[in-house]
Amino acid sequence: MIRRALLALLLSSAGPALAEDFQLGFPLDCTLGQDCYIQQYMDRDPGPEASDYRCFGLTYDSHKGTDFALPSTAAMRAGVTVRAAADGVVKGTRDGMTDGAPLAEVSGRECGNGLVLDHGGGWESQYCHMKLGSVQVIQGQRVATGDALGQVGQSGQAEFPHLHLSLRHNGEPIDPFDPADTATCDAAPKTSLWQDTPPYRPGGLISVGFSEGIPAYSDIKGGTANRQTLPATAPALVVYGYSYGTRKGDILRLSLQGPRGEVIAQDVVMDRPQAQAFRAVGKKRRARLWRTGEYEGTVTLLRDGAVIDTRRGSLTVR
């Protein structure tokens, strides 16, 4: 707490210089809420429980960074560039670890492929879980904010493709969303180390998609489940929603509208907290053929009656 108080003093009094001189740019080539999202924030609870800087549970015990996630392994394979969040010198790198390797094989190398940047003044940033063979900087190299460092991967202790970005000052983990530890459950933090602070989301939707049956979860995570067209002879029409950060009691509202109105609409209540999950609803074909034309699927995540996120997608039946 003394260390936090000193940092708060620096940020509030001598702090404008510190806040202006050391700020973070966004570390990925993606747009939050569209083709990437924040899966987990830094854990701010000093005990065995877990709480992010806004007093919600979008984190886990002892998590010391921010996880910027991709929607699928297909997106990872397509390539998403990791960029330096601030000017610095490469302190060290690692590459050569396989993406998606069994967790038992990564003991002692949980960060996977990645690197550390030394920004001076006691500040360091670390980039973890990068794609095999993608790290493109070397020890001692000087980089500027926005320079390409490699690509997002799933190496090390990673159950999904993401960049784990951690920040340290004199060896102590710092939350860039609330470096002076001023946030409360009812008020946003007074300071941030981001040039443009990403908006806080306590959970949300990763994707919406369609299928002719309940898709395999592995296909959803892989990015291969969604069918943009289906034949009129399909045995069923199914709409699914892929979510993150859901809590017990959250509602996924799924609906499918066809050329002549509603095909199906259903609320699904989440029965437990889940870092990632999917739910699907559908209707079996009873007529000879489905009506051809455009269909729209809508998935909404609700919490305590309030809308957290909504996504829509379209399906063509031929």
Automatic annotation (TrEMBL):
This protein's name: Peptidase family M23
Keyword Transcription regulation: no
InterPro entries: Cell_wall_metabolism_enzyme, Dup_hybrid_motif, M23ase_b-sheet_dom
UniProt keyword Transport present: no
Molecular-function annotations in GO: metalloendopeptidase activity
Lineage, broadest ranks: Bacteria, Pseudomonadati, Pseudomonadota, Alphaproteobacteria, Rhodobacterales
Keywords: Signal
Secretion signal, residue range per the UniProt entry: 1-19
Pfam families xref list: Peptidase_M23
Limits of the M23ase beta-sheet core domain: 62-176
